[in-house]
What does this fold into?
Amino acid sequence: MKKPSPEQIKAFEGKDVLTARQFSLEELNAIMGTAAHYEQALAEKRIIKDMEGKVMASLFYEPSTRTRLSFETAMLRLGGSVITVAESATNQISSTAKGETLHDGITVIDGYADVIVIRSPQTGAADIAAQAAKHPIINAGDGAGQHPTQALLDIYTILKAKGSAEGLKVALVGDLKFGRTVHSLVDFLALYGCDLILASPDQLKMPEDIVASLRDRGVKVEETNSLQDAVKVADVLYVTRVQRERFPDPSEYEKVKDLFIVDEELIRGCKEGMIILHPLPRVNEITVGVDKYPGALYFEQAYNGLYVRMALLALTTGSVG
Ligand code: NCD
It folds into this structure.
C-alpha cells in the first residue's frame, strides 16, 4: 500500500463518497495507500496540518459511536475543525423537526463547511445531500442502503492482515438483508476477485438484486444457511449483527436474533490463518471467548477506521500534503 501519485490524489478532489460501486480498483488502492500514509504519520507522532483551516460538518441522525468519533478524530488529527448538531440523536434530519427538507438543511450547512459527513436512517439520504451540496458529501451509512467508509476500512484491515485480498474466500454471515456494511463490502471484494460465501438465516438473505449483480460481474457467490459450512472454507469470516432497528415487526427480530453465533467451538474447525472481522457493535453473534483467538481482528479493524477516514477527508477536499 503506497501513497498514490499527485495525479491520482488530484482525481478525488471535490468527489462525494456515496456508494462502494462508484470506485474503481485503482481508486480503491489510492485510498488504501493514503490511509497507510496517515497511519505511518501518526505512528511517527507527526503533527499533521493537511486540513488546517478547514471545517467538517458531522451530521449523525442515527446512533453512532465508532463512525462519528473516528470521523471527528480524523478531522482533528488532520489539523481541521468539526461542527455538529446538538439534536442529532433524535433520528430526525435536524431542522426537519420544524418541517425543513433535508435538501434545504444541507444547502445551509454547505455554506459553513468544507466537507459534510452524514448518517441517516433513510436510504438515499446521502444522495439527496450530494445534490444539495457543492462540497463533498461522505455517506456514513444510509438506512439499510450503503456504508462505504466502513467497507473501506474492512478492506484496509484485510489487506494489512493478509497482504492481498486477491482470490480470498470471504464468508459474510448474519444479517445480510438489513446490514448495510455488507451491501458495500461485496462490491469491493468483487473488484479484488474474491469468492463470496453468503451465510444467513433464510429470513435475512442478501437482497436478490445485489446477488444477481455480483454474478453478472462474474463473482463466484455461494448462498447457504449453514454457518458451519461457511466457517470451514473461509479465509475471512465477516460477522454482522442482526439489525434490530430495521425490523418492522419486533417479533420477527426475536425469532432470528440468536440463530448465528460464532463461538470457540465453531472456530475450532476453521482454516488456519482465518481472520474474523465485525463492524461492531456486537450483540451476541461473537462470544467474548473468541476475542483471544489470534485472528479476531475486530477491535484493530475499528482503529483502522481512523486512518481510512483521514484519507477520505483529505482526498475529497484536495488536502493530502
Ligand atoms: C455498522 C452500521 O452502523 O451499519 N456500525 C458501524 O458503523 N461500525 C454496523 C452495525 O450497526 O451493525
